[in-house]
Design brief:
Elements lengths: L7 H17 L2 H9 L14 H7 L3 H9 L14 H7 L3 H13 L8 E3 L7 E2 L8 H8 L5 E6 L2 E6 L5 E3 L4 H8 L9 E7 L1 E2 L21 E3 L4 E2 L6 E6 L5 H7 L4 E2 L13 H19 L10 E4 L4 E4 L19 E9 L5 E6 L11 E4 L6 H13 L3 E12 L4 E10 L13 E6 H10 L24 H12 L4
Parallel strand pairs: 3-10, 14-18
Antiparallel strand pairs: 1-8, 2-6, 3-4, 4-5, 4-11, 6-10, 7-9, 12-13, 14-15, 14-16, 15-19, 17-18
Bound molecules: zinc ion and magnesium ion.
């Protein structure tokens, strides 16, 4: 999405006004500006946000308002200071307390905003109640206003806007009629994804939306679910499996369409933030259809129902047709992923697998087991992999990770022991990292860790890319911890 250059000076003016009113503690003006078009996370020429400026000057009322409006407290200025670090430095305990409280709450701020990670933000309302309405679905399928996205081997057709970012390629009924109107039994798998949401506040976060040269821009966002509405007249979205159709045929319909490398899932990180959710949804469902072709109860063949969201066994005698059976529904596999905080509050436990890029460390993670709480899974995994004991556990945010059907449950774990014994089956190494090293890693960004410099400080830490919840957890911790 390109920005109209004529609005740029106006936006700069508004941002300047926001910054000066935040510094001065002018609550009314700040309120007016952020309810209008001001970018709450916009930075001034020195790389400071409104939140940082309010923190510098001890403006607690403005701080509270900005946080409630979704201001990102994890952003850092070029000196690596978050708003909390600034408030601490200038001795504004009331401000420090507010930011800390907000950070600890994570997912439950006053406006009911939730942190949404990459693959979590969707432009669609799933409209699950319509999945059984065959007539409505048929009408939507033939509606020219409907959007179709095409998949092959669980990978979408996209259009590249530049070499680093792509958008999903959107098709219409008349372009795909030859596929959609095939005789019954011969039709490719079609999944109803939902209807387009109408956002009250138009905002399109995108990975390329970089406002500074550092990695302080986020791939997590806060959105209130209450700000969107949709009804059954809104355009429907479908995903169609075209694995049997040659790529050239698809290109004949849309010349710019390209299949996003099915073998390299990292290519999905090039998707726009607000399309990743839709693609993740479809990808997880196609992977499920692809891997679960026979009834897990009796081995008979199954048919797809409920617009792609249910498998029904063809064997009328099958037990799966009686009572409640989770075997009929798409898989979601919960994984806990945790940033483990040292008892001194100033270090984080991170580990690396052998196959990670050089110097990259990430949060520990592991699949949950049946009959286990999230908290216990966090404690068990951390202890198994690192020997560290975790006491209190808090939830931060979650992330669907459609490779193929994982749900990452992001937590903070508060360590009650510090000695590390690495489980070498799972990890190559696990270590405590000081906050300053983590801040440096967030600032230099991924891929710039230089081990050839021969510096005495040792190899520089590399963190996972910002689309990964591990990155967001680490960043959130930096935002809620000032230098001690
Ligand atoms: Zn069966
Ligand atoms: Mg494990």
């Amino acid at each position: 999405m390109t920005e109209d250059p004529s609005t740029k000076p106006v936006k700069t003016q508004i941002l300047k006004a926001l910054h000066s009113s935040a510094s001065d503690g002018d609550l009314q003006t700040v309120s007016r500006l952020i309810n209008g078009i001001a970018d709450v996370n916009g930075v001034d020429d020195h790389g400071w946000t409104a939140l940082m400026l309010a923190a510098r000057n001890g403006r607690d009322k403005v701080i509270k308002l900005l946080l409630d409006k979704g201001c990102d407290y994890t952003l850092m200025n070029p000196a690596g200071q978050t708003a909390l670090a600034i408030a601490d430095f200038w001795h504004h305990p009331a401000v420090s307390h507010l930011i800390n409280q907000h950070a600890q709450q994570g997912s439950s701020s006053a406006d009911n905003n939730n942190i949404i990670n990459f693959f979590g933000l969707s432009i669609l309302d799933r409209f699950s109640h319509k999945r059984t309405e065959k007539e409505w679905l048929k009408q939507k399928r033939m509606d020219q206003a409907s959007t179709f996205v095409l998949f092959s081997q669980s990978s979408p057709y996209v259009t590249w806007s530049d070499s680093s970012s792509c958008r999903v390629c959107r098709f219409q009924y008349n372009q795909l009629q030859f596929l959609l109107e095939k005789p019954e039994g011969d039709q490719p798998t079609l999944i109803f994804l939902g209807v387009g949401k109408i956002p009250v506040l138009e905002s399109e976060p995108s990975p390329s939306d970089s406002t500074s040269s550092t990695t302080t821009t986020s791939s997590a966002t806060t959105t209130s679910p209450a700000t969107t509405t949709s009804d059954s007249d809104d355009p429907a979205w479908f995903a169609l499996d075209v694995a049997d159709i040659p790529e050239d045929t698809i290109k004949g319909i849309a010349p710019s369409a390209e299949l996003l490398s099915p073998k390299n899932y990292l290519a999905l990180m090039s998707l726009a933030d607000n399309e990743a959710g839709v693609i993740g949804q479809a990808r997880a469902l196609f992977s499920w259809h692809d891997r679960y072709k026979f009834c897990p109860t009796c081995g008979s063949s199954m048919r797809i129902e409920e617009a792609g969201y249910k498998h029904v066994c063809e064997n009328k005698e099958c037990r799966s047709l009686k009572g409640v059976h989770n075997t009929c529904y798409p898989r979601v596999d919960p994984v806990t992923i945790m940033a483990v905080i040292h008892p001194d509050g100033n270090q984080l436990l991170l580990g690396r697998k052998k196959q990670f890029p050089r110097n990259m460390y990430s949060c520990l993670a592991g699949f949950m087991e049946p009959g286990e709480t999230i908290e216990d899974a966090v404690r068990r995994e951390v202890h198994e992999e690192s020997g560290v004991k975790v006491g209190h556990v808090t939830y931060h945010s979650s992330q669907p990770w459609p490779m193929p059907s994982t749900l990452m449950i992001g937590c903070f774990g508060y360590a009650v022991s510090t000695e590390i014994t690495v489980d070498t089956q799972e990890l190559e190494d696990a270590r405590w990292f000081a906050r300053r090293d983590i801040v440096a890693a967030l600032q230099t960004g991924r891929g710039t860790g230089d081990t050839r410099s021969g510096s005495s400080e040792g190899p520089k830490l590399l963190l996972p890319f910002k689309q990964a919840i591990a990155h967001q957890l680490v960043k959130a911790w930096v935002g809620m911890t000032a230098n001690l």
